[in-house]
Design a protein that fits this description.
This is Aldehyde dehydrogenase family protein. InterPro entries: Ald_DH/histidinol_DH (IPR016161), Ald_DH_C (IPR016163), Ald_DH_N (IPR016162), Aldehyde_DH_dom (IPR015590), LUC3-like (IPR044086). With 469 residues, the protein is α/β, with parallel strands linked by helices. Helices cover 40% and strands 19% of the residues. The longest helix is centred in the N-terminal third of the chain and has 20 residues. It is globular, with a radius of gyration of 23 Å.
């Protein structure tokens, strides 16, 4: 499984069966994914229920040993995995792309495995000693997206395994091969039944959500689908960690050096061609530095090459699917029609094969334009001019999303004073979107609830238990 061909052959159905998965850069067939049924899911859940107690009984040390060996397996197959990610999802091999994602899978697995979660002594006096422990939930259902398919799968799988749970994974229909590959690599070390992937249809997703034997749902995706997941899991009172949509604001204060922040602003917005929930999606710039920031952003953006992800010189790739391309195109066209000024892009080659939409910067845009208020999830950044800080904080907080935000300033203490006033799960200072396996991450409002990563993320994959006495 250390070559692209070997890894692909390990996950494709025999005899050329299954559903064809296409390359978003070329529309060519990458490989074929199995189409699992609800009956397949029932067998997987039953196997997980059977395997989970023995997995939990290994204890933390036993599970860590196996998970670290599995991380070594990912390292061995990292290039093959990256090739699958690139061909299926579209992100380039280089830059913050497919090799970055594959490497992140191994790093995050190791971090989750080795994070300690000691019992917390909550009372210890002459009368009482009480400790807070976290035990395995049982079976976890992990439903993932198509933008970072392998890495987000690991974000869901790794802490669940670390806490002694079995996991049933459902990947996006657009990017099942990446997740099938990750699971195949991990299962070289994991006991049978502990981790299963179901590459099925909507009926499979619906059954995972409502299944009485699944005690926890990890869901990453759109807010609307997240709301449906919450409703459909309610009868079982299933635990949930939903990471949903975002429309992250960035506020640039007048004391910045525009050239110094241009690269950070760009990658905050355009990493993964803008297909990241916690990407910078609406940029508010003070009028005193507005033109300089716009110019510096444009100067940097033109240096970043977009192309087929398999081309070693590409740093940005296509959008993963045509419906997302159409959303971005529609929002940019509406902004152009409203009189907004296009600094760069906004002119897709509609005859080109693949889902390429050019890097697009839109200035002089109304703060209530749809491109500002709606999550575009693509390579188009609206840049809004402001003059009043109180007003721009109000605008940053006005939407129902609350995943991330950022404040950019030459005075870090000034930025830190503003950050708590922004209603978002994470507020970055002079950067945007960076995550770390030990720093908790999660949204508020309609961007979801609960935390992932670090010790707090592990707690979300366990059930609390008080030992009193």
């Amino acid at each position: 499984m250390t070559t692209f061909e070997g890894l692909l052959s390990a996950i494709e159905p025999a005899g050329g069966e299954g559903r064809a998965i296409r390359n978003p850069a070329t529309n060519g067939v990458v490989g074929r994914a199995p189409v699992h049924t609800v009956e397949d899911l029932e067998r997987a859940v039953a196997a997980a229920v059977t395997a989970q107690p023995q997995w939990e009984a290994l204890g933390h040390a036993g599970r860590v040993e196996i998970m670290l060996r599995a991380a070594d397996r990912i390292d061995e197959a990292a290039e093959a995995l990256a090739q699958i990610i690139t061909r299926e999802q579209g992100k380039p091999l280089n830059g913050p792309g497919a090799r970055f994602e594959a490497g992140g899978c191994a790093a995050w697995l190791r971090a989750s495995a080795t994070t300690t979660l000691e019992p917390e002594v909550v009372v210890d006096d002459e009368q009482t000693r009480a400790e807070l422990h976290y035990r395995a939930i049982g079976v976890v259902g992990a439903i993932g997206p198509w933008n970072w398919p392998a890495l987000i799968a690991i974000w869901q799988i790794a802490p669940a395994l670390r806490m002694g749970n079995a996991v049933v994974v459902k990947p996006s229909a657009y990017t099942p091969l990446s997740v099938l590959a990750v699971v195949a690599i991990l299962n070289q070390e994991l006991p049978e039944g502990v981790l299963t992937v179901m590459s099925g249809n909507r009926e499979v997703v619906a059954r995972i959500v409502e299944h009485p034997a699944i005690g926890k749902i990890m869901f990453t995706g759109s807010t609307e689908t997240g709301k449906t997941t919450i409703k459909n899991s309610a009868d079982n009172i299933t635990r949930l960690t939903p990471e949903l949509g975002g429309n992250d604001p960035g506020i640039v204060l007048p004391d910045v050096d525009p050239k110094a922040i241009a690269e950070g602003l760009f990658w905050g917005a355009f990493i993964n061609t803008g297909q990241t929930r916690a990407a910078l999606k609406r940029l508010y710039v003070h009028e005193d530095v507005y033109e300089e920031v716009c110019q510096s952003l444009r100067e940097y953006a033109v240096t970043v090459r977009m192309g087929d992800g398999a081309d070693e010189s590409s740093v940005l790739g296509p959008l993963t699917n045509r419906p997302q391309w159409e959303i971005v195109d529609d929002l940019v066209e509406k902004a152009k029609a409203s009189g907004a000024r296009v600094l760069l892009g906004g002119n897709p080659d509609r005859d080109r094969s693949g889902n390429f939409y050019p890097t697009t910067l839109v200035a002089e845009i109304d703060p209530d334009d749809p491109l500002v208020l709606e999550e575009q999830f693509g390579p188009a950044l609206p840049i809004v001019k402001y003059s009043d800080l109180e007003d721009v904080i109000r605008r940053a907080n006005a939407l129902e999303s609350g995943l991330g935000a950022s404040v950019w300033s030459g005075d870090v203490e000034r930025a830190r004073a503003i950050a708590p006033r922004i209603k978002a799960g994470t507020v970055w200072i002079n950067s945007h979107g960076g995550v770390h396996p030990m720093i908790p991450f999660g949204g508020i409002k309609e961007s979801g609830y609960g935390l992932e990563f670090g010790a707090e993320g592990l707690k979300g994959l366990g059930v609390p238990q008080i030992i009193n006495g």
